[in-house]
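Tokens for chain A. Residues wanted.
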């Protein structure tokens, strides 16, 4: 499924006046970054990139050569596997912004740092042209985040409670920006019909 989505994304078309965003759980960026860097989109948001600190450093340099600025979440750690070399743990997120646009910092409060340490969220801002009325365009700041929920949350039980607690903080952080457009790209690892939290968020959206 992921390889199919990676291929499908290459069929997108950038259109003047429109912001094109692609989001995907790539299940490791290490073998797929060349394909991702060729996507004809303005922004990408990835989950489960499985990149440790060294991977992040080297990939940021390579991807920048292809015209992208990348913002990483916290690097994932190594885990030891008996009888094998160290392998990188699951998880990790990132967002990419096509040059010449540059990422802008967002305010860093206690909630920002708490969420950053989870390795499940990254957030960054950029300026883009917003057309509110025909012929009326202005530059405005937009914030985008990439979210990766706790695996297994869809099965319910305590892991869903843990995931809902994490996601409630994610939504609280987003709400704190008021009228600034906040785009959340996520693999919540749970469904909007199964999770009471996600169901309530969706219900508020339609109120």
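Reply:
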């Amino acid at each position: 499924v992921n390889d199919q989505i990676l291929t499908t994304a290459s069929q997108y078309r950038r259109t003047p006046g429109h912001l094109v965003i692609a989001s995907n759980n790539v299940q490791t960026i290490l073998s797929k970054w060349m394909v991702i860097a060729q996507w004809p989109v303005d922004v990408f948001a990835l989950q489960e990139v499985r990149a440790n600190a060294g991977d992040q450093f080297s990939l940021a340099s390579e991807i920048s050569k292809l015209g992208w600025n990348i913002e990483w979440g916290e690097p994932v750690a190594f885990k030891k596997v008996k009888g094998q070399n160290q392998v990188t743990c699951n998880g990790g997120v990132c967002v990419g912004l096509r040059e010449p646009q540059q990422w802008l910092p967002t305010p860093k409060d206690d909630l920002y740092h708490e969420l950053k340490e989870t390795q499940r969220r990254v957030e960054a801002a950029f300026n883009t042209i917003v057309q509110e009325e025909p012929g009326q365009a202005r530059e405005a700041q937009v914030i985008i985040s990439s979210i990766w929920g706790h695996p297994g949350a869809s099965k319910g039980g305590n892991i869903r409670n843990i995931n809902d607690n994490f996601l409630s903080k994610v939504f609280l952080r987003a709400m704190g920006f008021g009228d600034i457009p906040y785009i959340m790209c996520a693999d919540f690892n749970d469904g909007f019909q199964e999770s009471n939290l996600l169901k309530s968020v969706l219900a508020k959206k339609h109120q």
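The radius of gyration is 18 Å. The chain has a mean pLDDT of 86.
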